[in-house]
Amino acid sequence: MIEGVSLIEIMSLTTILFFIGIYGFLTRTNLIAMLMSLELMVNAEAINFVAINKYLSPNILQGQIFSLFIIALAAAETALALAIILHLYRLTVTVDVKEVEELKY
Amino acid sequence: MMNAFSYIYLIPLIPLLTFLFLGFTAKKIKEPLSGYIGTASLTAVFGLSLYTAYKYFFEIGLVNGKYQPVTVMIKQGWIHFTDKLAIDLGVLIDPISVMMLVVVSTISLMVHIYSLGYMHADTGFSRFYAYLSLFSFSMLGLVLSSNLFMIYIFWELVGVSSFLLIGFYFEKPSAVSASKKAFIVTRFADMFFLIGILMIGYFAQSFDFETLNSPATYNTIQGWIAHHQIASFMGLSVFTWALILVYIGGMGKSAMFPLHIWLPDAMEGPTPVSALIHAATMVVAGVFLVARLYPLYFHVQDGYALRVVAVVGAFSALFAAIIALTQEDIKRVLAFSTMSQIGYMMMALGVSGFSGHEGLGYMAGMFHLFTHAMFKALLFLTAGAIIHAVHSNFMKDMGGLNKYLPVSSAVFLIAALAISGIPPFAGFFSKDEILTAAFEYNKFIWLIGFLVAGLTAFYMFRLYFRIFFNKQTHYEHPPHEAPYSMLTAMVFLGLMTIISGFIPFSELVSADRMPFHSAIEWGDPLVIASILMGLTGIGVAYLMYYKETNYPKKVASAMGVWYQWAKHKFYMDELYIFITHKIVFDRISKPIAWFDRNVIDGFMNLLGVTVEKTAERLKVIQTGRMQDYAMYFVSGVIAIVMLIVYFR
Fold first, then answer.
1. Which of B619, B620, B627 sits opposite A97 (nearest CB)?
2. How far is CA A86 from each of CA A6, A32, A78, A97, B195, rounded to the nearest angstrom?
C-alpha cells in the first residue's frame, strides 16, 4: 500500500504508458524508436505486476518475481533485436521499416 | 517315392538363376560368353529332364499297371484362402508333365545352340539369352505346376517372356505393336481363365490337380448337376461354364479362333523365338491345360466342355490351313500352320474317350504335341537359316535355293514330309491316330481333319518348292549355308523328327494313365486314305510350284473373292480393329472420357479456380510492412476484449 495512491491511479498510469508504447510502435518507422516503444509496453506491464501484487496479495511475491523475469527477458530481447537491426543495417544501409518490405505478396 | 524326385525343383530353378545372372550382368558379359552360360544351364536342365523321364517311365512310375502321379511338395498351404481352400507350392510329376519337360528342354536347348549362330553380332545378344532363360524357367514351371493357381502364375510369366521376346527388336515399331498385341490379346483371354479358376476353386474347394481329377471330385459334381444342386446358366451348369472359361484362357495362349490374331504378328520376334515359343512350347500350353484337367473335362456334364474344345479345335485347324495357303511371308505360313496343328491337337483331345483304347484321341493329341514340337521347331529354325541367308521373309525373294543350302533343304524336306503325314516321319503316326479317333467320334469332324491334312501337305510343299526350286532368283551375294551351331540344332531336330514317330506313346501317356497298346494297321482304309491325301497335297503343290507356272495365278483368279478373303486372313484383324475402335473406343470409351474430362475434372477445376480467385483478393492485406501487421494484431485484440466486455 502506498499512502494516498490508489490502484486505479497506478493502473491508469501504466495504461497510458502502454498505449504510448503502442502509438510509438505503430507510427515510428525507425527500428530503434520502435524498439524503444516496445520497451515502454514491457515496462508498463512490469509496473502492473508489481502494483497488483502489492495491492491484492501483499504476502505473496509472485508478481514481483515476475517483473524481475520481465526485466531480464526485456534485456535479452533488446540485445537480440539490436543484433538483428545491426545486421539489417549492414545489408540494406537503413533502419527504416518502410525501406524493408520484401516479405509480401 | 517322394524322395526319388526331390531334385526336381532344380529344373526350373537353374534357368531362373541363369536369367537373374545374365540379366544383372548383361552389360558386362559379352557375346559369346553369355550364350555359352545360357546353353550350359539348359544342357543341365535337358540332362535332368531326360533323367526324370527315364526314371519315371521305366523305373518307378508304373505301379500295378498304372502310372502313379508323384507330387513333390515344396510348401504345403503356401497361401490360405479359407481353412479348407489353400494353394500349395508343389511339383506334380505324371506322364504328361514328364513328356512336356522333355519337349520344352529339348527345344529350348536346341534354340539356345541355334541362337549362338543366329544372334551372332546382335547388340542384344546377352539380353536375348537372359530372356530365353526367363522363358525356359516359366515354361518348365508351368508344366510342373501342381495346382491351378501355380499354373496361372507361370502362365502369366510365359506371357511376359513372350512379350519381351516378340518385342526384342524394340526399335522397330512393328515389333513393338506386335508384342503389345500378343500381350493384350492373351491377357484378355487370361481374364476368363482367372474367373474360371476362381469358380472351380469355389465349387470344388480345391485347386490341386490331383484332387480335382480324382473320381471323388467329378462324381460329386456330376451328382450336383444330376440333382440340380448347382446353379446353371443357359442350360449349362456353372462348373461346365468354369471349364469353358478355363478353355478360353487356353484358346488365347494357343491361338485358337477367334483369339488367334496375335500369333501371325508375333513372328516379328527373332526366328529362334518363334521356333521356341510360338511353335513348340508356349502355344501348346492351352492343349496342355485341357489335358491336365482332362478327367474333369470328360466327366462333368457328359463332357459338354470337351465338345466345345473339339469344335473350336477343328474349326481353327481348317480356318488357319486355308489362310496358310495364301500367305507370302514364310514365317506367317508357318505361324498359321502352327495354329492349324494346335487346332488338330485340341480336336484330338475333344474327340477322345477316357479309359483304355477309347482314350486314343487324348494319347494322339499328346503324341502330336510331341512330334509337332520337333518338326515345327525344325521348320522355324530352317526358315531362320533361309532368312539368315537371303535377308528376306518373302517367298518372292527366294527360289532355287536348293543348291546353295543343301542341308537346310534336306531337313526342311524331312519336316515338311513329317507335317504332311508321310510315313515313316513323326507326323504320320500322331496325325493318323488323331484321324482314327476323330473317325470313331464324328464323321464330320474327321472330314475336317482329313481335309486339313491335305491342305497342310499342299501349303508345306508350296513353301518347300517355292523356296528351294521354282524360279532361280538372282542373288546379289550368293546365299551361304548357316554356321555349324545352327546346323547342329537343325540336324538334331531332323533326327528327332525321323525317330520320334516310333516312340510307343500309348504305352506311356494315356487319359486314365493306364498304358494300352496301339499300333498303326497298315491295311486300314483310313490309314491309306490319309497317306493318299498327303501325297495328293504334295502332288498338286509339285505341279503348281516345282517349276514356275501360271497355275497359281489362274487358281487365284478363279477363286476370286475367296482368295482375297483368305489372303487377308478373312479380315479378322480388320474386324478386331472395327470392334475395338469403332464400337469400344468410340461408343463406350469416348463418352466416358468426355464425362471424366468435363464433369469430374470440371468440378475439380471449379474448386481450384474459386480458391485461386479468393486468394487473389485476399493477398493484398499481406503488405510486408511490420506496422500493418501490428495494427491488425492490436485491432484484433481490442475487438476481442470489447466483445468479451460487452457480452459478459
1. B627
2. 43, 10, 12, 13, 76
| Angle in degrees, CA B470, B274, B336, rounded to 5 | 60
Cα–Cα dist B525/B167, whole Å: 48
pLDDT tens digits, one per residue of B382-432? 998 888 888 888 877 787 788 888 888 899 999 999 998 888 888 888 888
Chain A residues closer than 8 Å to B623 by CB: 101, 104
Residues of A whose CB is below 8 A from B634: 22, 26
pLDDT at B16: 93
Residues in chain B: 648
d(CA B294, CA B303): 10
Flag if A29 and B627 touch (Cβ within 8 Å). yes
- Contact B373/B107 with Cβ under 8 angstroms? yes
Residue of B nearest to A102 (CA): B624
Q: Which of B41, B9, B6 is nearest to B22 (CA)?
A: B41
Residue B363 CA to residue B359 CA, distance in Å, equals 6
> Any bridge partners for residue B89, and if so which?
B75
**Cα distance between residue B4 and residue B632, in whole Å:** 88
Q: What is the count of residue pairs from A and B with beta carbons less than 8 Å apart?
A: 26
Burial B505-537 (b: 16+ CB within 10 A, else e): bbebbbbbbebbebeeeeeeebbeebbebbeeb
Prediction pTM value: 0.79
Cβ within 8 Å of residue B243, ≥6 positions away: B196, B200, B293, B296, B297, B300, B305
The chain B residue lying nearest A98, using CA atoms, is B625
- Asked if B625 and A101 come within 8 Å (Cβ–Cβ), the reply is yes
Residues B449 and B347: beta-carbon distance below 8 Å: yes
CA of B618, closest CA in chain A: separation in Å? 10
Task: Compute the mean pLDDT over every residue in chain B, rounded to the nearest whole number.
Answer: 87
Alpha-carbon distance B259 to B182, whole Å? 10
Residue B481's φ and ψ, nearest 5 degrees, are -65, 150
Judged by DSSP in three states, B268 sits in helix
C-alpha cell at B205: 474347394
Q: Are B545 and B470 in contact (CB under 8 A)?
A: yes
Contact B362, B439 (CB under 8 A): no
Q: Which residues of B touch A (CB under 8 A)?
A: 619-620, 622-627, 630-631, 634
Give phi and psi for A30, each to the nearest 5.
Answer: -75, 130
Domains of chain A, residue spans: 7-92
Q: What is the DSSP string of B558-603?
A: HHTHHHHHHHTGGGHHHHHHIIIIIIIIIIIIHHHHHHIIIIIHHH
| Domain A7-92 is found in CATH 1.10.287.3510 | yes
Q: How far is A48 from chain B (nearest CA, A)?
A: 18
| Per-residue pLDDT tens over the stretch B460-516 | 998 898 888 877 777 777 788 888 888 888 999 999 888 888 888 888 888 888 888
Contact B328, B394 (CB under 8 A): yes
- State whether residue A22 sits within 8 Å of chain B by CB: yes
Would you say the C-alpha torsion B441, B445, B447, B448 has a positive or negative sign? negative
Among B55, B10, B511, CA closest to B297 = B511
Which candidate, B378, B569, B592, places its Cα nearest to that of B488? B378
The full DSSP string for B494-562 is HHHHHHGGGS-GGGT--TTS--------TT-HHHHHHHHHHHHHHHHHHHHHTTT-SHHHHHHHHHTHH
The kind and range of the H/E element at B63 are strand B62-63
DSSP A44-93: HHHHHHHHHHHHH-TT--HHHHHHHHHHHHHHHHHHHHHHHHHHHHHHHS
